[in-house]
Specification:
2 copies of one chain form a homodimer.
Chain A: H1 13-24, H2 34-41, H3 45-58, E1 61-64, E2 67-70, H4 74-84, H5 87-102, E3 106-112, E4 115-122, E5 138-140, H6 145-152, H7 159-165, H8 179-192, E6 194-198, E7 205-213, E8 216-223, H9 228-249
Antiparallel strand pairs in A: 1-2, 3-4, 3-8, 4-5, 6-7, 7-8
Helix pairs in contact in A: 1-2, 1-3, 2-3, 5-9, 6-8
Chain B binds a DNA duplex through residues 2, 6, 9-10, 12-14, 33-35, 44-47, 49-50, 66.
DNA sequence: ACATGTTGTGCGTTATGCGCACAAGCGTCA
DNA sequence: TGACGCTTGTGCGCATAACGCACAACATGT
């Protein structure tokens, strides 16, 4: 059963190409011109133009001059997911409560292909560091505690392939580059039930992650050595009780 | 015999229909069947099926049994907007800081058609009430302080038409239903530079909103009479300084 | 059992989107 | 200034690709 026939009669190529146009606005650049879109999507300029014009017609894109940019309406699509999974009603309050108690920022994330996808984030006003990530942001799988914890929760059989497929893009000088060593760390995370990374994604920042459900993890971070080992321990315990509370709420079963 | 261009040659109908399928997942129901999609979009079942299958192929939809549901990947689309406008980096920290100082939840919103569209939300962990809204949630224009403040910032000429176009859906028994009276309140909000509503959207809750930029407002809410009039005053002043700080950051110029 | 609701899928038709090719702007260098 | 490259916008013929009817298989309730 071939997973995707390139010429499946049941797949609307025009629709897929249009979505590629929408995906081109990934935030790397705040605005794109038609030529940019055509380049990024590999489509003919005329095709890209039709896609962009259609998105404009639907209200997802706006055009000033020759620059196209996203409108806030794209948020409504995300809103559908967040509401369907009760993120605002059941998840966010739990995150906020524990973040306040711990004085740290807590992030809920899932795996999306070879990236970590941020689902929700609780903001502690006392939080010392702010990374500027939002729901919908994507992080690397291999060099974050969140990503490694996600991989630790998967079937160990396919782990090597998953690591090989994920892009090895070291973010700091301390990022591990040896895939075997990364696999070891993931294995340890599976055993321990949590994952800690140090300075692999942001220099001087220690990341902690625990599992919540299949393909759902919870994480936080703090400056290295701020409160020493006991600070990490306290944060870890806090995350674990938070995860258990989220499990009890049970809104995160389906991805 | 082309019947005088039934539709614009530059707009891809297939793409628009596919987006309609995606929009059908607005969170009202956590999952939809093919028949539901066809009904909600008014499309032929075969067309809806092609759209859903294409979305599945792209990873935005998943299917278990006969139920289709959104995957977290839709969040990446919103992430593009949030990153392009520096919401996470420049806006959220300001919101968090003021929310902590005020002990109240602060919401940033814009207008999207005849609805208020939530852009970002800062959560104070001490906040007494949580409404369960998230970025991407939509609220009525006429019965919220956010919505009325948005209308107050628009061209007064078209105000009547805007009010007539927006759905009059009273949410509480105290919701104003007289459009003329609503127009008066909006006019007052324009004069005062802020808008206060009481129990019109949620019973017993007072909402406050101030303008940040064209089509961008900031709001908060508190239980009626919690801290009396001086509580409202303090919150209002806090919102105004928060708005001014956001203006200085200047990331909210383009919608 | 029937009746009513699904879902999957062929297939002929033609509307529809594709991309070439032309036209019009914009800057640079001689 | 004019000729040059390198953009960008758009019309139009053609072939494809999407449409939606229609049928079959299946589930559910009366």
């Amino acid at each position: 059963m071939p997973p995707a026939d390139p010429q499946d009669r049941n797949i609307a190529a025009t629709f897929a190409k249009g979505m590629a146009v929408l995906e081109a606005f990934d935030g790397q650049a705040p605005a794109l011109t038609l030529a940019d879109i055509a380049r990024l999507t590999g489509q003919d300029r005329a095709t890209a133009r039709r896609g962009a014009l259609t998105l404009m017609h639907l209200g997802y894109l706006r055009q000033d001059g020759r620059q196209f940019s996203l409108t806030p309406r794209v948020l409504t699509l995300a809103g559908g997911f967040l509401r369907a999974h009760r993120i605002g009603r059941q998840v966010q309050p739990v995150l906020n409560h524990h973040a306040g108690a711990l004085g740290a920022e807590i992030t809920l994330a899932t795996g999306d292909g070879d990236r970590v996808l941020l689902l929700a984030q609780s903001t502690a006003h006392g939080g010392p560091v702010s990374y500027g990530f939002t729901p919908g942001s994507r992080l690397p799988l291999l060099h974050t505690s969140l990503g490694r914890m996600l991989l630790a929760g998967e079937d160990p059989e396919g782990l090597e392939a998953r690591i090989a497929a994920a892009p090895i893009a070291p973010h700091t000088e301390q990022s591990l580059t040896d895939t075997a060593e990364i696999a070891v760390r993931i294995g340890r995370a599976r055993q321990a039930g949590f994952c800690i990374t140090d300075s692999e994604f942001e220099p001087g920042i220690t990341g902690i992650a625990v599992a919540v459900a299949p393909n759902v993890v919870l994480g936080s971070s703090l400056p290295r050595g701020r409160d020493g080992a006991e600070g990490v321990d306290a944060l870890l315990r806090g995350l674990q009780t938070c995860a258990s509370e989220l499990r009890q709420a049970g809104a995160l079963s389906g991805l």
